Automatic annotation (TrEMBL):
Pfam families: Glyco_hydro_88 (PF07470). One of its GO terms (molecular function) is hydrolase activity. It comes from the Bacteria. Gene3D superfamilies: 1.50.10.10. InterPro entries: 6-hairpin_glycosidase_sf, 6hp_glycosidase-like_sf, Glyco_hydro_88, UG_Glycosaminoglycan_Hydrolase. The keyword Hydrolase applies. This is Glycosyl hydrolase family 88. Keywords: Hydrolase. Belongs to the glycosyl hydrolase 88 family. The keyword Thylakoid does not apply.
């Protein structure tokens, strides 16, 4: 899908990813990493090493390491990547026993692990895990409001009516479940959620809300929240990318044109807001100082932009592909550690605008950078 002059750059990046993953995978073989501590992957399999909720086995990012290993297995055919992916998938079984820590993010956790394993190996155990996760997700649907409930009870807040834009990445698990079983209920729930979010989350200018609260008994929007962005009404960049790529996923699974048009509207807004240096802030509407960035958003956006480029005609393709290349080249040249000094690739992630820490490695930055690069090559393993 690339012009000839870009092909050399792409091949070089793939070589560097392969070199880095070769040693990182060995070093972190028995871990499920979220970030790095002094350059070394942490490990979410060990519960609560620092006593925060992000240390838990059911933390929402725990599928990405397995996903990275499946991407590498698909790219190289090296059995070690398959084995490492399967180690982390088995560790996640504990989440089903604990149950209460599970919520809308089961798609993020089991699409890149069990669904991936099942797609590649037809392992029946993986199919069972993925179906368990899909049923849990379907069970979170609120019939009055037409949305999938986010999270479980949060201290100090009644979240029974909360939905979040990130969930656009979880509903592909429901599309998969319908495709796998032939039962339309899962897809019906996914589409109803996507339709609700199209009006309740996506604003006229193509920006999106992070959290919307519905009346959980009667339906209807009560209000929105800034969530992980700067404030209510702002534009949390990773949320924009969950919506951008999320609507493309819904389009890929359903071919409903509204979803493609919505993805394009969000993408056009995103592209218009990419700063000249290609570095993505945590929120497009944050104050000028401090200059907080979230490079994980750049990687996720690139994936969605490439998918849009594949779906539109020749006259529009360059807009989306060009923006994706700008983001990926900025990451490659100034935001990725290609050395052995860090176990992770992308170094400047920010979980949320108001987090205590910013500009650190987060596993999904690496996952989506790799996915985008393999998409450009044209033989990616589509895990969503
Ligand atoms: N919950 C998804 C995110 O933090 O982006």
């Amino acid at each position: 899908m690339l012009k000839e002059q870009e092909q050399g750059w792409l091949n070089d990046v793939i070589d560097r990813i392969s070199t880095k993953m070769d040693w990182v995978s060995e070093k972190s073989k028995h871990k499920i990493p979220y970030t790095t501590i002094n350059g070394t992957h942490d490990n979410r399999i060990v519960d609560n090493p620092t006593g925060t909720e992000t240390d838990e086995i059911n933390w929402w990012t725990n599928g990405f390491w397995g996903g990275m290993m499946w991407l590498m297995y698909h790219e190289t055919g090296n059995e070690k990547y398959k084995e490492i992916a399967q180690i982390s998938e088995k560790e996640l079984n504990r989440c089903f026993d604990e149950f209460y820590g599970l919520h809308h993010d089961v798609g993020f956790m089991w699409l890149p692990t069990s669904v991936a394993n099942y797609k590649v190996t037809q392992n029946p155990e993986s199919r069972k895990r993925a179906m368990h996760a899909a049923v849990l997700l379907a069970g979170r649907f609120n019939l009055a409001g037409g949305f999938i409930r986010a999270w479980n009870d949060l201290e100090g807040s009644d979240t029974r009516g909360w939905a979040i834009i990130d969930c656009m990445f979880n509903i592909p698990l429901l599309y998969w479940a319908s495709e796998e079983t032939g039962d339309p209920r899962f897809k019906q729930i996914a589409m109803k959620h996507a339709d609700t979010a199209m009006t309740a989350f996506v604003r006229a200018d193509g920006s999106v809300n992070h959290i919307v609260e519905f009346d959980p008994f009667e339906g209807g929007v009560i209000r929105s929240y800034g969530g992980q962005g700067y404030e209510e009404g702002s534009s949390w960049t990773r949320g924009q990318t969950w919506a951008l790529y999320g609507y493309m996923m819904s389009y890929i699974h359903t071919q409903k044109d509204d979803y493609l048009q919505t993805a394009k509207r969000i993408a056009n807004y995103f592209i218009a807001n990419i700063p000249a240096d290609g570095v993505i802030p945590v929120d497009f509407r944050q104050p000028k100082e401090p200059k907080l960035e979230d490079d994980t958003a750049a990687a996720i956006a690139a994936c969605g932009l490439i998918e849009i480029a594949k779906a539109v005609g020749e006259h529009e393709k360059d807009l989306y592909l060009g923006a994706a290349l700008k983001l990926l080249k900025t990451l490659d040249s100034s935001r990725i550690d290609w050395t052995t000094g860090s176990d992770s690739l992308v170094q400047f992630g920010s979980a949320a605008y108001h987090s205590a820490n910013h500009h650190h490695a987060i596993i999904y930055g690496d996952y989506y950078f790799m996915e985008a690069i393999f998409k450009l090559k044209g033989n990616d393993l589509y895990l969503w």
